[in-house]
Design goal:
- Two copies of one chain form a homodimer.
- By secondary structure, the first copy, chain A, is α+β, with helices and mostly antiparallel strands.
- The first copy, chain A, is about 25% helix and about 20% strand.
- In chain A, helix 2 packs across helix 4.
- In chain A, the strands form two sheets. Chain A has a ten-stranded antiparallel beta sheet with strand order 3-4-6-8-7-12-13-11-10-9. In chain A, strands 1-2-14 form a three-stranded mixed beta sheet.
- Chains A and B meet through strand 1, strand 2, strand 5, strand 7 and strand 8 of A and strand 1, strand 2, strand 5, strand 7 and strand 8 of B.
- Strand 5 of chain A pairs antiparallel with strand 1 of chain B.
């Protein structure tokens, strides 16, 4: 692919979902296939059971309170959802209305321990086990949706210290907020603009052959047309759905397989980079008029370059790898998953 | 100050300039005064003249073309403004109008070499010399403003590899874009909302005793009320002005002194952290109706923590240090500057 990259000229593309411009600048790039992480995340000598880790099987008493475990009522759990011991927001505070730009830090901050075994990472789990982690997210989001005080829930995972993970034991996090973040509203406004112009949902239309990596029965994995980050991947439901937590067991298992495949490909092709993933779902109390253009998806961002002053200042990103090239590199890597 | 931090409860504050929520969460914090960088930027054995550095005096032929130097017509320059050898956007491309969300990567990407001497950093320069760097920014932005094809110019500095700097020789960058980034429009929209509600410019009103660090004749240095990042600092003109490049020589010298002071304080108090600074000016072709609420400022962000999946996903930031506490720490550190 690299001959095309070397002759490409820089382009500025509009990301119609996040409403930002991205500069694709091959002059600042090595070949996409050489764009590997210089800080691989896995320990070279993984310790199967780290004695000081409170997320390990048998160390449950060192953790903040448990919310639920899977399977229920067994010491031999596979997944635990617990409270975060150092929560960003606190469930024990009184929620308040906004006064001079301040509200109390009410909210929920939970942790999903994805495996009892230290040193096992999410894509090391079987397809069905990753599906069960997805179902644990769904179950917890459904519980939070029933709390009338919450407006938005962010499910996310930080993998690797430079992506923000403070624990190496495989886990993800869920934060429930009493407000809709303006960035989330802006995403919906952008999708509304696309819908108003074209009569179509921007995410139903987001895929093309060039940027497709893999597809499953219910999901597509693409490098978005105006990816902000090199090798950024979106996993998008084929069917137009506003809420992540509406997915059923069958779709969760299907999603788990595709997620495992993409994480395995990123790890293999990019030297086990640190990464973040985020589930972009809809705010809980979405007006029905928003349903035609609110489409949930997962964004996966490997941490391969640094966000600097230009990005912070202008909100524009510079991406040295064209999405079509990144998709080709990820499409063609050979992986068998179980 | 730390006793107050330990008893504080988390708060969610609205940043009315960048239109985002910031969660202040002391539970996730050490004491603000302990919040030092673990990756100080300066080499322990600074080399006064690095032989392979093209930004050093005498290596001008290794650089991309020069735009101007200060002083003019001398080999013994103090500041050089040059083209970026690996530009994100290219001045030699034809600008194009937006077609299917894509424009050519036309634009200008320049570098300001702040000193001829390797190993001298911006706050090591005298107050007057920092002022001259500010004047070099101004002069180059004025030149770009005359190019009818540009809409917005971002002046920024990345200090330290983890803040995005690829060269250690002290420099900053200027990118001129043929479009107004949506983030910049959103900032003006937020300030318009403040103005429409209160009849006042949000930045004229941004300061209070609690969050003030230092002031000079023409500028205030504050930790903003809803700082996204620990020890983030804004330098704000006291006088309501929309455009950075309108500042005159006297104000540039005054600004240079305050900038030097703040960078020195951050370095001293936080163990020479990597940082970014960005000048948030107005788009070139601002309608006159925007002038009452468009107020330029500089944002300085020390890189002390990691932006993770929650921030990327929700656009909300988690800041473990309350602005009042950060301002106190920075106000009280003793610095004499020349």
């Amino acid at each position: 692919m690299t001959s095309s990259a070397s002759t490409r000229q820089p382009e500025i593309r509009k990301d119609a979902v996040f409403n930002r411009f991205v500069i694709f600048s091959p002059a600042r790039s090595r070949r996409p296939s050489d764009f590997k992480s210089h800080s691989p995340t896995k320990s070279p000598n993984p310790n199967p059971k780290h004695l000081s880790c409170p997320f390990c099987l048998g160390r449950e008493h060192d953790c903040a309170p448990e919310i639920f475990r899977i399977p229920r009522d067994t010491d031999d759990w596979k997944i635990r959802v617990i409270e975060n011991l150092y929560p960003a927001v606190r469930r024990d505070l009184e929620p308040s209305s906004c006064c001079e730009g301040v509200v109390t830090g009410f909210g929920f901050h939970d942790v999903v321990i994805e495996t009892p075994v230290h040193g096992i990472h999410l894509p090391d789990l079987s397809q069905a086990e990753v599906g069960e982690v997805v179902l644990a997210y769904k179950e917890r989001v459904c519980q939070l949706a029933k709390n009338g005080l919450l407006e938005y829930v962010q499910v996310f995972k930080n993998y690797g210290a430079s992506a923000g993970a403070s624990m190496t034991h495989s886990h993800s996090q869920i934060i429930g907020l009493p407000l809709v973040p303006p960035t989330v509203s802006a995403r919906l406004d952008s999708l509304k603009e696309v819908f108003d112009k074209s009569g179509k949902c921007g995410l139903c239309e987001a895929s093309s052959e060039d940027i497709l990596i893999n597809e499953s029965n219910y999901f597509l994995a693409i490098v978005p047309f105006a990816a902000s980050f090199p090798f950024e991947v979106w996993i998008v439901p084929r069917e137009h759905t506003s809420y992540f937590h509406d997915l059923n067991e069958q779709k969760a298992m299907d999603f788990g397989g595709l997620l495992k495949l993409i994480l395995t490909k990123l790890s293999k092709q990019l030297n086990d980079p640190p990464y973040n993933f985020m589930i972009h779902s809809s705010p809980f109390h979405l007006p029905p008029s928003h349903l035609p253009f609110a489409h949930w998806f997962m964004q996966i961002v490997p941490q391969l370059n640094v966000v600097g002053g230009f990005e912070i200042g202008s909100g524009c990103y510079i991406n040295p790898v064209f999405p079509e090239d990144a998709a080709k590199v990820l499409r063609e890597v050979h992986c068998t998953i179980n």
